[in-house]
C-alpha cells in the first residue's frame, strides 16, 4: 500500500504534461487547513491484502445497508418535492414580471391624463400545512393522509402570496433636453397602493415530505408506507420520472443537417449554428450550392460573420483566430469562404463601424414577436452568463469549432439516448411547469376583471376579488386526476404518462411504481435506439425491468442504488478559481494555446492550463467535504474540456474509492455512518460522464487478484455488489443470472407485482376498492444481498446479523416435485396437495369496497334548492334483496351478502330507487361500514365485503423465475408420491417446463433450499455472486441427500417404489391475483344492447361471451348445425319480419282501415297494396337493422323466401 500511496502522491504532484511540480505546491495540495487533524487518524495504513476478502465483502454489505438507511428507495421523489417547496415555488412566482393592466376605451374621457392603470406584483410565497374544516363548530383541524383517503379529499395545503397592487395615472412632463436627451417623458402618479397576503390556491402535498404531518408523528399509519405519492380526491397518485434532453450542454447533431445548439430553458437565449447551403455568390470562382454557416437567434436567420462583427470583432483574421481550427483542410476553407460571401451578399459593408450591429437589430425587430430592447438584446439574450461582447464572440467561435470538428469526423455527435445527455424531471420540475400554466391563467383572468374597475369612477376592490384561487386549485387537481400534464415546450398541448395510480397489490409493487421512469416519444412505433439498453444505463437503470408491449424499453426502473441528484445552490465559482482555474480573457486576439475549457452546467466559466491537476484537486475537495458530494466532474482530454455539473436530474450511484479503502480500519469498532464514509472519501457518488474516466472493479475479488503473482489491473473504483446493477424487483430473484432474461422480466414486471402478500399494516383505516391479503405469508429460505441490505438489524433465532426486508417477498415455501401426475399438469398446469390447502397453504382474503355518496343538505341548503334529494335509507327494491339492510340503508357487520343483494340502500324523496346492488358473481361478508363527509358538500358511505378464498381450479400461481401456471387438479395427499422420510410434495410441476423456458435457477433454488432446510450455512442466492453448483451439491451431500436433489419415492396409489428418481425441494411460490372466481363468466340470456339487441360484452354487466367467425368455423367443421343456430340466433338476437312473396319487398306492420269503418293492425305491402301472400320469416335483428339503415339511405333490398 505504501507503493500505491507513493504513486498517488506522485500522480497528484505531476502535471498533465508530465512535469514535476515544486515541493511547496505539492505540500499545499496534500495538506490544507483543518484537514491535518482528519488525516492524522489515517496515518496507519495497511494494504488491501491485509484487510482480506471477507472483511471487504462485509464492509460492502454494511455500506450498502447504510446507504439505504440514509437515502431509502424513494428519496428522489421526496427530495425533489422538498426542493420545490423551499426554493422552486418562490422561483416560479418570481418568473412572472409585473402585470400592467391598461384601461379599456372609455368614450366619456376627455383628456389623456385621467386614465387609470394598475400594476400587480407577486412577492413572497408561503405554504401552510394541510388542514380542513370539520366538526359541529366548523373549526380547522390538521389533515392527515388517512383523512384524505377516507373522506375522498385532496391532501393539499394553502398557498399564500404577497400581492402588491398599485393604481396610478400617467402624465407627460417636459424636461431639460440638454441633460436627459429627451424633451418630454412620462411621469407616473401613484393613486393607491395595496399590499396584502392572499390565498392563491392549494398545492397537493406529497406524503412524508416536509409539509406532511406524518413527519412529526412517532409512528406512521403503515410500516410499509414510505411516502413519495399524492392523495387526490382519495386516490393515491404518483409522478413518474420523465426523461428529457439535457439543456445544460452544447448539442451537436447531424440528424437534420449539421448543427450545434446552445440550449436553454429560456427560449430567447437559445442559439443554433447550422451548416447549410448558402445562396449564389457574386464571385464567379465560387460555384452555387456552397455550404456556409448560419446562426439562428431570436427567431431570425443571421450569417455567422455578421454576428461576429456585431460583437465587436474588427477583422476576418480575428474571427479565424477565435474559431482556432485547422484551416489547411480544403473543405473547411470552402465553408469559411462560403460564410464570408454569404455575409457580403446579405449586408454589404458589414465590416464598417456599426453596420453589422444595425443589420442585426433590424433583422431582430422585423420578426413577428420582437423583444422590447434594441441593441441591448444581444447583451441580455446572447450567452447571458458572459458579460463582455468579446467573451460572447469567443464562445461563439468555440461552438463553430465544435461543429467543424464533427463535420470533419474528429468529434462525435451527441447521442440522445445516452444518460449523459439526459436529465430526469421529478416533482420539482413537473409541478413547476404545471403551476406556471395555471398562474398565467389566473393572471389573465384577473387582468380582464380588474380592467373593468379601472373605468370611470369605479373603486378598485381588494385583489382577492379579482384573483380566483380556484383556478390554481382545480387546475392542479385536474392534472393529477386526468393524467394530462402540460407539455415541456408546446404551450397548448398536454402529454400523458406523467401521473399514474399507485399500485397496492403488495408493498413491492408500490416501491416499483415509485421508482419508474418514462421516456416520452412522439409515437410508440419504431423510435430508433430509444428502446434498447445503452452502455450509460449500467448501474443506473435496470436493463431487465421494463414492460412488454408498446412501452417496452420506454418505461424503465431505477437500479437499486440509483440516486437522482438535486439542485445544488451553493456557488462553486470561487472554489474553481482556488483550484487553478483562470478567467476568460476579454479580447479577441489571445489564443488558448492548448488550455482546457471549463464548463459549469453548460456555461463557459474559465480555462485551465493543467487539467489533470485541476480535476485531481477538485475530486480531493469533494472527498473531503469541501465540495458538494453530488457534483460531477468530467475531464475530456480529447476535446480539451472539463465539464462540471451540479444541476438536478442526473443519476448518480455510490462506488468504493479503491485508494481510500484502507481508511476503513481507522473507524474504531466499525462504527460509522454513510455520511462519514462520504466525508472521508471511502465512497463517492459517480455520475454518468465521470464514470467514463473510471476503471471499476466488479467485485472485491478483482481488487485482490494480484495476490496470485499476476499483474493486477489498476482499478480506481469498485462496485458495492453486482446485484445493485439490477432494479429492486430483479435484485431479489434468486439465481437470476442463470435464467433466461425473458423469464426474469416476467417475474420482475408482472408476477412480483401481482403476487398476493400483506399489502399494508393499516387495513382498518383504508377503503381500497379491491385488496388481497395472504393469511400466512413467509420469507423464502434463501437470501439475497439486496433484501438483506434493505432489512433491519435484528438478532432472532436462525438469523445472524441482518433480517431480510419481509415485504419484498409475497408468497410461501412449498415442497415442489418435478414429475408428471396423471396428465393433469400438462401445459403449465399444477397439481396441488388438497391436504396442504386445507391446512392453509396459499389461503388468502379478498376484500372489495362499495362506495356511494349523497349531497350534504346541511352545507348545501344555503345556496341550492333540491328538487329530488337522495338520501341513504332502506326501501323495498324491485331489482334486489334488502333483507340484510338496517333502517339506515347499510348492512350490519357480519351480514352474508350474495349476488343480487342490495349493499347500500339509497332512495329519493320521490320514491325512486338509487341503491347499489352486488354484481354478478360477487359475494362476501360485511367487514366494515365507513361513513364520512368532506368539505365539498358530500356524504360518503363505504361498505367493505370480505371473502376467504382457498386455491381452486383455475387460480394462477408462479415461482420467482417466471414459471407461471394455473391449478389443474387437487389431489388427495394419500395419492401423492412420498419419500422415505414421509415427505409429500405440495405442488407437482411438469418437467417439460424447464428446457424450453431455460430457467435452471428454479432447480438451483430448490436444491439450495433443501440444503438450508437441513441446516446448511450457505444461504445466499444473490444474482451474479451466487454459489457454484458444486458448493450447492456438496451442501446437499453433507446433509445426507443426493447431490443433485433427486429422491426415491413410492407411488401413493399402489405403494410401489417408483423406478425413476424424482427431483424434489422447497421452492418459493407466489399466488397471483388472477383467480377463476373473478373471471368466471356464464349466462343463458341476459341484458342486450338497445340498438343491436345483441348481448352486451361486459362481464360486470352480465354480458355474453363473444362467439366469433373462427368459433363458427369450428362448429361447422364438427357438423353441429343445431348448436350453431342456437348460439348465433336463438340465444342472441332472434327477431321476425314480414316479406311479401309477390314483390319480394318487406311488408310493414301498420294500422289500416277496412270496409265497414273498422281499423285493423297487421302486415301490409305498400307496393302491392295488398295484405295477401305475406309470410313471416325469422331473421337476426342485426340483419333487420341493416335492412332498415340501407332503406333510410335509399337502398332497397329484396328477399327470396321459401316455405320449409
TrEMBL record:
<dbReference type="Pfam" id="PF04561">
    <property type="entry name" value="RNA_pol_Rpb2_2"/>
</dbReference>
<dbReference type="InterPro" id="IPR037034">
    <property type="entry name" value="RNA_pol_Rpb2_2_sf"/>
</dbReference>
<comment type="function">
    <text>DNA-dependent RNA polymerase catalyzes the transcription of DNA into RNA using the four ribonucleoside triphosphates as substrates.</text>
</comment>
<dbReference type="Pfam" id="PF04567">
    <property type="entry name" value="RNA_pol_Rpb2_5"/>
</dbReference>
<dbReference type="InterPro" id="IPR007120">
    <property type="entry name" value="DNA-dir_RNAP_su2_dom"/>
</dbReference>
<dbReference type="InterPro" id="IPR037033">
    <property type="entry name" value="DNA-dir_RNAP_su2_hyb_sf"/>
</dbReference>
<dbReference type="InterPro" id="IPR007647">
    <property type="entry name" value="RNA_pol_Rpb2_5"/>
</dbReference>
<feature type="compositionally biased region" description="Acidic residues">
    <location>
        <begin position="1"/>
        <end position="12"/>
    </location>
</feature>
<dbReference type="GO" id="GO:0005665">
    <property type="term" value="C:RNA polymerase II, core complex"/>
</dbReference>
<dbReference type="Pfam" id="PF04563">
    <property type="entry name" value="RNA_pol_Rpb2_1"/>
</dbReference>
<feature type="domain" description="RNA polymerase Rpb2">
    <location>
        <begin position="503"/>
        <end position="561"/>
    </location>
</feature>
<dbReference type="InterPro" id="IPR015712">
    <property type="entry name" value="DNA-dir_RNA_pol_su2"/>
</dbReference>
<dbReference type="InterPro" id="IPR007644">
    <property type="entry name" value="RNA_pol_bsu_protrusion"/>
</dbReference>
<keyword id="KW-0479">Metal-binding</keyword>
<feature type="domain" description="DNA-directed RNA polymerase subunit 2 hybrid-binding">
    <location>
        <begin position="730"/>
        <end position="1101"/>
    </location>
</feature>
<dbReference type="InterPro" id="IPR007646">
    <property type="entry name" value="RNA_pol_Rpb2_4"/>
</dbReference>
<feature type="domain" description="RNA polymerase Rpb2">
    <location>
        <begin position="598"/>
        <end position="659"/>
    </location>
</feature>
<dbReference type="InterPro" id="IPR007645">
    <property type="entry name" value="RNA_pol_Rpb2_3"/>
</dbReference>
<dbReference type="GO" id="GO:0003677">
    <property type="term" value="F:DNA binding"/>
</dbReference>
<feature type="domain" description="RNA polymerase Rpb2">
    <location>
        <begin position="674"/>
        <end position="721"/>
    </location>
</feature>
<feature type="region of interest" description="Disordered">
    <location>
        <begin position="1"/>
        <end position="33"/>
    </location>
</feature>
<dbReference type="Pfam" id="PF04566">
    <property type="entry name" value="RNA_pol_Rpb2_4"/>
</dbReference>
<dbReference type="InterPro" id="IPR007121">
    <property type="entry name" value="RNA_pol_bsu_CS"/>
</dbReference>
<dbReference type="Pfam" id="PF04560">
    <property type="entry name" value="RNA_pol_Rpb2_7"/>
</dbReference>
<comment type="similarity">
    <text>Belongs to the RNA polymerase beta chain family.</text>
</comment>
<feature type="domain" description="RNA polymerase Rpb2">
    <location>
        <begin position="295"/>
        <end position="423"/>
    </location>
</feature>
<keyword id="KW-0804">Transcription</keyword>
<dbReference type="GO" id="GO:0046872">
    <property type="term" value="F:metal ion binding"/>
</dbReference>
<keyword id="KW-0862">Zinc</keyword>
<keyword id="KW-0808">Transferase</keyword>
<dbReference type="Pfam" id="PF04565">
    <property type="entry name" value="RNA_pol_Rpb2_3"/>
</dbReference>
<dbReference type="InterPro" id="IPR007642">
    <property type="entry name" value="RNA_pol_Rpb2_2"/>
</dbReference>
<keyword id="KW-0548">Nucleotidyltransferase</keyword>
<dbReference type="InterPro" id="IPR014724">
    <property type="entry name" value="RNA_pol_RPB2_OB-fold"/>
</dbReference>
<dbReference type="Pfam" id="PF00562">
    <property type="entry name" value="RNA_pol_Rpb2_6"/>
</dbReference>
<protein>
    <recommendedName>
        <fullName>DNA-directed RNA polymerase subunit beta</fullName>
        <ecNumber>2.7.7.6</ecNumber>
    </recommendedName>
</protein>
<dbReference type="GO" id="GO:0006351">
    <property type="term" value="P:DNA-templated transcription"/>
</dbReference>
<feature type="domain" description="RNA polymerase beta subunit protrusion">
    <location>
        <begin position="72"/>
        <end position="461"/>
    </location>
</feature>
<keyword id="KW-0240">DNA-directed RNA polymerase</keyword>
<feature type="domain" description="RNA polymerase Rpb2">
    <location>
        <begin position="1103"/>
        <end position="1201"/>
    </location>
</feature>
<dbReference type="GO" id="GO:0032549">
    <property type="term" value="F:ribonucleoside binding"/>
</dbReference>
<dbReference type="GO" id="GO:0003899">
    <property type="term" value="F:DNA-directed RNA polymerase activity"/>
</dbReference>
Amino acid at each position: 500500500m505504501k507503493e500505491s500511496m507513493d504513486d498517488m502522491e506522485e500522480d497528484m504532484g505531476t502535471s498533465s504534461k508530465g512535469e514535476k511540480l515544486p515541493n511547496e505546491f505539492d505540500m499545499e495540495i496534500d495538506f490544507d487547513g483543518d484537514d491535518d487533524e482528519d488525516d492524522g487518524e489515517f496515518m496507519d495504513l495497511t494494504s488491501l491484502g491485509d484487510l482480506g476478502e471477507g472483511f471487504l465483502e462485509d464492509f460492502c454489505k454494511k455500506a450498502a445497508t447504510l446507504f439505504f438507511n440514509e437515502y431509502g428507495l424513494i428519496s428522489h421523489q421526496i427530495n425533489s418535492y422538498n426542493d420545490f417547496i423551499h426554493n422552486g415555488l418562490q422561483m416560479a412566482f418570481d418568473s412572472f414580471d409585473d402585470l400592467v393592466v391598461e384601461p379599456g376605451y372609455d368614450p366619456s374621457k376627455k383628456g389623456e391624463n385621467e386614465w387609470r392603470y394598475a400594476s400587480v406584483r407577486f412577492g413572497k410565497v408561503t405554504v401552510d400545512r394541510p388542514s380542513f374544516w370539520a366538526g359541529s363548530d366548523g373549526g380547522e383541524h390538521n389533515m392527515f393522509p388517512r383523512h384524505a383517503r377516507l373522506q375522498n379529499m385532496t391532501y393539499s395545503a394553502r398557498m399564500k402570496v404577497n400581492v402588491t397592487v398599485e393604481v396610478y395615472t400617467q402624465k407627460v412632463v417636459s424636461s431639460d433636453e440638454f441633460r436627459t436627451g429627451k424633451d418630454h417623458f412620462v411621469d407616473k402618479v401613484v393613486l393607491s397602493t395595496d399590499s396584502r397576503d392572499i390565498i392563491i390556491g392549494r398545492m397537493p402535498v406529497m406524503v412524508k415530505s416536509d409539509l406532511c404531518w406524518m413527519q412529526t408523528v412517532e409512528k406512521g399509519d403503515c410500516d410499509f408506507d414510505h411516502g413519495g405519492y399524492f392523495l387526490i380526491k382519495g386516490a393515491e397518485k404518483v409522478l413518474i420520472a420523465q426523461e428529457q434532453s439535457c439543456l445544460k450542454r452544447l448539442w451537436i447533431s447531424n440528424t437534420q443537417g449539421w448543427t450545434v445548439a446552445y440550449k436553454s430553458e429560456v427560449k430567447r437565449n437559445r442559439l443554433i449554428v447550422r451548416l447549410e447551403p448558402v445562396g449564389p455568390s457574386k464571385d464567379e470562382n465560387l460555384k452555387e450550392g456552397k455550404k456556409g454557416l448560419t446562426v439562428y437567434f431570436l427567431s431570425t436567420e443571421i450569417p455567422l460573420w455578421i454576428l461576429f462583427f456585431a460583437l465587436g470583432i474588427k477583422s476576418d483574421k480575428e474571427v479565424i483566430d477565435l474559431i482556432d481550427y485547422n484551416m489547411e483542410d480544403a473543405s473547411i476553407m470552402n465553408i469559411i469562404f462560403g460564410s464570408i460571401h454569404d455575409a457580403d451578399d446579405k449586408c454589404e459593408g458589414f465590416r464598417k463601424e456599426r453596420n453589422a450591429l444595425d443589420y442585426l437589430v433590424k433583422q431582430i425587430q422585423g420578426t413577428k414577436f420582437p423583444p422590447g430592447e434594441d441593441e441591448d438584446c444581444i447583451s441580455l439574450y446572447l450567452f447571458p452568463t458572459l458579460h463582455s461582447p468579446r467573451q460572447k464572440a469567443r464562445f461563439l467561435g468555440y461552438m463553430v469549432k465544435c461543429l467543424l470538428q464533427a463535420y470533419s469526423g474528429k468529434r462525435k455527435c451527441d447521442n440522445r439516448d445516452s444518460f449523459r445527455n439526459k436529465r430526469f424531471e421529478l416533482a420539482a420540475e413537473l409541478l413547476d411547469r404545471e403551476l406556471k400554466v395555471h398562474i398565467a391563467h389566473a393572471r389573465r383572468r384577473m387582468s380582464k376583471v380588474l380592467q373593468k374597475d379601472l373605468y370611470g369612477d369605479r373603486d378598485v376592490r381588494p385583489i382577492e376579488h379579482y384573483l380566483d384561487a380556484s383556478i390554481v386549485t382545480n387546475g392542479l387537481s385536474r392534472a393529477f386526476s386526468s393524467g394530462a400534464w402540460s407539455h415541456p415546450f408546446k404551450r397548448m398541448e398536454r402529454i400523458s404518462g406523467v401521473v399514474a395510480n399507485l399500485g397496492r397489490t403488495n408493498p413491492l409493487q408500490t416501491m416499483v411504481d415509485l421508482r419508474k421512469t418514462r421516456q416520452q416519444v412522439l409515437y410508440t412505433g419504431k423510435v430508433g435506439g430509444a428502446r434498447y439498453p445503452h452502455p450509460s444505463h449500467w448501474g443506473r437503470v435496470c436493463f431487465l425491468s421494463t414492460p412488454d408491449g408498446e412501452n417496452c424499453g420506454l418505461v424503465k426502473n431505477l437500479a437499486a442504488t440509483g440516486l437522482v441528484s438535486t439542485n445544488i445552490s451553493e456557488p462553486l465559482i470561487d472554489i474553481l478559481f482556488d483550484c487553478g482555474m483562470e478567467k476568460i480573457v476579454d479580447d479577441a486576439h489571445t489564443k488558448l494555446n492548448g488550455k482546457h475549457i471549463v464548463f459549469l452546467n453548460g456555461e463557459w466559466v474559465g480555462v485551465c492550463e493543467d487539467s489533470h491537476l485541476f480535476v485531481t484537486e477538485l475530486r480531493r475537495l469533494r472527498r473531503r467535504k469541501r465540495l458538494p458530494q453530488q457534483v460531477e466532474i468530467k475531464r475530456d482530454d480529447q476535446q480539451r474540456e472539463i465539464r462540471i455539473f451540479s444541476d438536478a436530474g442526473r443519476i448518480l450511484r455510490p462506488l468504493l474509492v479503491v485508494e481510500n479503502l484502507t481508511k476503513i480500519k481507522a473507524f474504531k469498532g466499525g462504527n460509522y455512518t454513510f455520511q462519514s464514509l462520504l466525508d472521508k472519501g471511502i465512497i463517492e457518488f459517480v455520475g454518468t460522464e465521470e464514470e467514463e474516466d473510471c476503471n471499476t472493479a466488479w467485485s472485491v475479488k478483482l481488487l485482490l487478484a494480484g495476490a496470485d503473482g499476476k499483474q493486477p489491473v489498476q482499478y480506481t473504483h469498485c462496485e458495492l455488489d453486482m446485484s445493485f446493477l439490477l432494479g429492486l424487483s430483479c435484485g431479489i430473484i434468486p439465481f437470476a443470472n442463470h435464467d433466461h432474461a425473458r423469464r426474469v422480466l416476467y417475474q420482475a414486471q408482472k408476477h412480483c407485482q401481482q403476487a398476493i402478500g400483506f399489502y399494508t399494516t393499516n387495513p382498518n383505516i383504508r377503503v381500497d376498492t379491491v385488496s388481497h391479503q395472504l393469511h400466512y405469508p413467509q420469507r423464502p429460505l434463501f437470501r439475497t444481498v439486496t433484501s438483506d441490505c434493505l432489512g433491519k438489524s435484528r438478532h432472532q433465532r436462525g438469523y445472524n446479523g441482518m433480517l431480510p426486508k419481509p415485504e419484498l417477498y409475497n408468497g410461501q415455501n412449498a415442497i415442489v416435485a418435478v414429475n408428471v401426475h396423471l396428465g393433469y399438469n400438462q401445459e403449465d398446469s399444477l397439481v396441488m396437495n388438497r391436504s396442504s390447502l386445507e391446512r392453509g397453504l396459499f389461503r388468502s382474503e379478498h376484500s372489495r369496497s362499495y362506495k356511494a355518496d349523497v349531497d350534504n343538505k346541511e352545507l348545501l341548503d344555503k345556496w341550492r334548492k333540491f328538487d329530488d334529494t337522495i338520501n341513504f335509507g332502506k326501501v323495498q327494491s324491485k331489482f334486489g334483496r334488502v333483507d340484510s339492510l338496517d333502517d339506515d340503508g347499510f348492512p350490519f357487520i357480519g351480514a352474508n351478502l350474495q349476488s343480487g343483494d342490495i349493499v347500500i340502500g339509497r332512495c329519493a324523496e320521490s320514491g325512486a330507487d338509487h341503491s347499489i346492488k352486488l354484481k354478478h358473481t360477487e359475494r362476501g361478508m360485511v367487514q366494515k361500514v365507513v361513513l364520512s363527509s368532506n368539505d365539498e358538500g358530500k356524504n360518503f358511505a363505504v361498505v367493505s365485503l370480505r371473502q376467504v378464498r382457498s386455491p381452486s381450479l383455475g387460480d394462477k400461481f408462479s415461482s420467482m423465475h417466471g414459471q407461471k401456471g394455473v391449478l389443474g387438479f387437487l389431489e388427495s395427499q394419500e395419492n401423492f408420491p412420498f419419500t422415505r422420510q414421509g415427505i409429500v410434495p405440495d405442488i407437482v410441476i411438469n418437467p417439460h417446463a424447464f428446457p424450453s423456458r431455460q430457467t435452471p435457477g428454479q432447480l438451483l433454488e430448490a436444491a439450495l433450499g433443501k440444503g438450508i432446510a437441513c441446516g446448511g450455512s450457505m444461504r445466499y442466492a444473490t444474482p451474479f455472486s451466487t454459489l457454484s453448483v458444486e458448493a450447492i451439491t456438496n451442501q446437499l451431500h453433507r446433509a445426507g441427500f443426493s447431490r443433485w436433489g433427486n429422491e426415491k419415492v413410492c407411488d401413493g396409489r399402489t405403494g410401489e417404489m417408483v423406478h425413476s428418481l424424482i427431483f424434489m425441494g422447497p421452492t418459493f411460490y407466489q399466488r397471483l391475483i388472477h383467480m377463476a372466481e373473478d373471471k368466471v363468466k356464464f349466462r343463458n340470456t341476459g341484458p342486450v344492447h338497445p340498438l343491436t339487441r345483441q348481448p352486451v360484452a361486459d362481464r360486470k354487466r352480465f354480458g355474453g361471451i363473444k362467439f366469433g367467425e373462427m368459433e363458427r368455423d369450428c362448429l361447422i367443421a364438427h357438423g353441429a348445425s343445431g348448436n350453431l343456430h342456437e348460439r348465433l340466433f336463438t340465444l342472441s338476437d332472434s327477431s321476425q319480419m314480414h316479406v311479401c312473396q309477390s314483390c319480394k319487398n318487406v311488408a310493414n306492420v301498420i294500422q289500416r282501415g277496412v270496409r265497414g269503418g273498422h281499423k285493423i293492425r297487421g302486415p301490409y305491402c305498400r307496393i302491392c297494396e295488398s295484405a295477401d301472400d305475406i309470410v313471416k320469416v325469422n331473421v337476426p335483428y342485426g340483419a333487420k337493422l341493416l335492412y332498415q339503415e340501407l332503406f333510410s339511405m335509399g337502398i332497397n333490398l329484396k328477399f327470396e323466401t321459401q316455405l320449409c
